[in-house]
Amino acid sequence: MAEPHSTRGMKQTTLAAALLFGLCCMIASCDNGNPPVRENPTVAIIEEAEPPMEEETDSPLFRAYDKAEDTVMFQTYVFFSQPIPKDVELRMMGRSLSDTNKISIDRLRYLTLPYYDYDGNIQSGEMVCNKAIAHDLLCVFRDLFSQAYPIYSIRLVDDFDADDEASMQANNTSCFNYRNRSGVNRLSQHAYGMAVDINPLQNPCVRGSRFRPSTAAEYVDRSKDFEHKIDEKDLCVKVFTSYGFRWGGRWSSTKDYQHFEK
After folding, report:
1. pLDDT of 83-97, one tens digit each?
2. Which of 238, 234, 239, 243 is nearest to 262 (CA)?
3. Helix (H, G, I), strand (E, B), or coil: what is residue 261?
4. Lowest CB count within 10 Å: 84, 131, 184, 219, which one?
């Protein structure tokens, strides 16, 4: 027997309401509350599920985007962040990690970073940074790599006994080093793993007539043209600042052309 018209109408209304409810649930499930990820539209990012955010009470600095492990890719090249491996911690102890350091090892991340050297060859670099900027640095070095931006070397400062001058003279790009600012009894942003120095030999830190590294005399005059100079037009400045880093080349008195910090 055919159903009454009113009964069919009620079933259709019920079905439509159920479909609408299901659609709303699907839309809601797409918003998982994860922090937004900056993406370069020309490359792909592959990331793992985000663990719950750690409870931090001492500083809002450490409330930033954080993953225990994080992977960013360009083509088949992997840019990877992880907690400090034990063998790396042993390399750091007594060097970049001093007995008086005020930052715990669990606040740091160990990065592996493919990069192009000055000869155009692809190398594998390593860097230690604060977990608060680890993901941004993966993206920064991914973006630089995608444009074959040349970097002389990326090694831990511990390979130079955490001697900042020696690392800079070797033109080494680095981040974490628990030390004071040069000539000042105050911790550097490098002591917190919140600053990166890029190609420091061609991009010295200049204070009046003084400069570091001490072997960078031919690169102090920034009106000259030379290879690997970081200036306002340089890709390195554009990429770092797009991820919220401040460039030392824009400071008023001291000019730290190698330096990017948060």
Report:
1. 999 999 999 999 999
2. 243
3. strand
4. 184
Q: Which residue has the tokens 């390979």?
A: 159
Is position 49 within any domain? no
Q: Are 87 and 60 in contact (CB under 8 A)?
A: no
Cβ atoms of 230 and 250 within 8 Å: the answer is no
Most confident of 34-38, 66-70, 195-199: 195-199
Asked whether residue 52 is assigned to any structural domain, the reply reads: no
User: How many CB atoms within 10 Å of residue 226?
Assistant: 10
Axis crossing angle, helix 134-146 with helix 235-242, rounded to the nearest 10:
150
Residue 54 placed within a domain: no
Host H or E run for residue 198: none
Residue count of the chain, please give it. Answer: 262
pTM exceeds 0.85 for this model: no
Note whether residue 45 is domain-resident. Answer: no
Name beta bridge partners: 195.
261
Residue 132: closest CA among 96, 103, 104, 108: 108
Task: Compute the half-sphere exposure of residue 237: CA atoms within 13 Å on the CB side of its CA.
Answer: 15
Q: In angstroms, rounded to a whole number, what is the distance separating the alpha carbons of residues 244 and 236?
A: 13
13-43 per-position pLDDT tens digit: 444 444 444 444 433 333 333 333 343 333 3
Domain carrying residue 103: 60-261
Which residues are within 8 A (CB) of 51 and not within 5 positions of it... i.e. 6 or more apart? 67, 68
What digits encode the pLDDT tens for the residues 97-111? 988 788 899 999 999
Cα–Cα distance for residue pair 54/140, rounded to 1 Å: 24
Structural contact between residues 239 and 185, judged by C-beta atoms closer than 8 angstroms: no
- Count of structural domains within the chain: 1
